[in-house]
Prior knowledge:
Blueprint: E1 3-10, H1 14-21, H2 24-30, E2 37-41, E3 52-59, E4 62-74, E5 78-85, E6 90-101, E7 104-114, H3 118-149
Antiparallel strand pairs: 1-7, 2-3, 3-4, 4-5, 5-6, 6-7
Helix pairs in contact: 1-3, 2-3
Protein name: Ligand-binding SRPBCC domain-containing protein
Organism: Mucilaginibacter mallensis
Amino acid sequence: MPTIELITEINAPVETVFNLSRSIDLHMESTKQTGERAIAGRTSGLIGLNENVTWRARHFGIWQNLTSKITVFDFPFLFVDEMVSGAFKSFTHEHHFTVVDDKHTVMRDVFMFESPLGILGKLVNRLVLKRYMTRFLTERNRVIKAAAETP
């Protein structure tokens, strides 16, 4: 199963970073390049335990819907979202937050995914998808960091 791990250091309190990371509105801001919109479930505000959101976005020129659910929630240190339905065979996205001091947080994303289509999916993972998802998540983290560090 391909795994992407990203570490982002943010000069903001852990509670701020945690809440920005689960903000539906900020997520849409960070995914403008794909036209991503929340269309069902929690469509604005802060998503929480056992809540779903359905996203509609254009990836690789194709409009797609993807529904995920928050399955683990430990404020302000961890939450996990998992795909309920969508283009992946499965994905789990762990969001970890570590307090460095009162005004500094380390955010660690662990994104594990499986593509459909067996061997063809594994080839797509290696050639395209892992790099694409790394860029997608890096941009999302850049927006979270900018929002958290802006007074």
